[in-house]
Amino acid sequence: MDGSWYSLLPSLLAIVFAILTRRVILALLGGVLLANGLFYAPDLLSAFLGSVVSLSSALVDPGNMQIWAFTLIIGALFGVLEGGGTFGHFVAALERRRLGNSPRKARLFTWFLGVAVFIESNVSIMTSGTTSRPLYDRLGMSREKLAYLIDSTCAPICILIPLNAWGAFNLGLISAQDIANPLLTFAQSLLFNFYAILAILLALWVAWSGWSIGPMRKADRRALKQAEQNAEATTQPQLASADYNSAAARSVMLSLLSMIVLVPLMLLITGNGSIVQGAGTTSVLVAVSCALGLAVLGARVSLKTSWRRLGWHALQGARKILPLAIILWLAMVLGDMTRMLGTASFITSLIDDSFPVWVLLPTTFILAALTAFAIGSSWGTFAIMLPLAIPLALSLGLPPAPFIAAAISGGIFGDHASPISDTTILASLAAGTEHIDHVRTQLPYALLAAFGTILLYLTYGLWVM
């Protein structure tokens, strides 16, 4: 079973079933059960017990428990900001400064936030999604487009400006290979990271033009119709100019800025002075906890919102996020099981030095994309593909930087397109949209950027290699 095509079945089952039925939790649970069935075959009792153990172990893992806490606290933060009343004043402040008075400005604002917060991808997603969502609702733009914009800027920008844990992780993998100057080679590879570059540029074009293709058109029409219906049903503005409270708006800004500032600060503290060696999950957990505390205090002080109401909205926000937390939990378990089955080993075994040189880069990209799509993890793909791609380049006397970039680009694309990816799930969470709706509306854009990437790697291979 190890390294055979059968190892692809659990991920394929989960992905296809989720897309066809929209029952993501059941699809992922079925994938976990099938993965354990294949791993322990033909012992069905062991397969059942293995499923229970894998699910419970992931649930109570100390590192994962920080992720669950972070996810639920983000939900509570949404609940307090929206239900506590301060977010309406924050949106009014943005509109007064003409940052959110038109769909184009709102989309560009989202894109800019996604690019600017490059220290940590999760914080980038949450900050952009939390800040932009009420603007999109008010302007009649779909939350699916919001999810696409934040998902298309977080991981790509983190890999292109690697002054973060992403850079440290990949630099460590590259340093383990026989390369004279790992840092310089990694820096050179950024110029060949075509998918990340194209994804960000395509997102910028969509932000500027509002371009919609495929299922995104239907989502945009639905959002615009809903906004028109809400406008007809509302006889008075939601927030009259005379009722504007600048203190409430500042409290939201303070809460959001605290996330941005505290993450690098905590990374420095937990990394003993090195931001790239810091504990990412712990840093994010501290940052969102402080943001929640500031949001509660801001609503209480500026709007005199009762403690009971704030507590209720915090719990309601966490409850709304719970299904996505369960999806994230099951996706992580399925990813662990696919690695135990040797899914990545089977995919990477398809490439060797017998390929024509000019197709090696696009082949590396495609295999990395398939790996990331199947296991739902870009970092896991980096760990698998870089030790394969770098020796392959060195054995053929070719520069390793383009091969490093092809492996990383493929990992970013596969993770971007996969329904079981943690960043895809978090983008759905931050935008407040159905997860499968986000996957289906984002996929055409991701495929377009991937197609351009393959053409660029083919062109480079034909003309240079």
Automatic annotation (TrEMBL):
Residues 179-461 form the Na+/H+ antiporter NhaC-like C-terminal domain. GO terms for cellular component: plasma membrane. The keyword Transferase does not apply. It holds the Pfam family Na_H_antiporter. Keywords: Cell membrane, Membrane, Transmembrane, Transmembrane helix. This is Sodium:proton antiporter. Signal peptide: none annotated. It is a multi-pass membrane protein. It is found in: Cell membrane. The keyword Membrane applies. InterPro entries: Na/H_Antiport_NhaC-like_C. The chain crosses the membrane at residues 39-60, 67-88, 108-125, 186-208, 251-269, 275-297, 318-335, 355-376, 388-413, 443-463. It comes from the Bacteria.
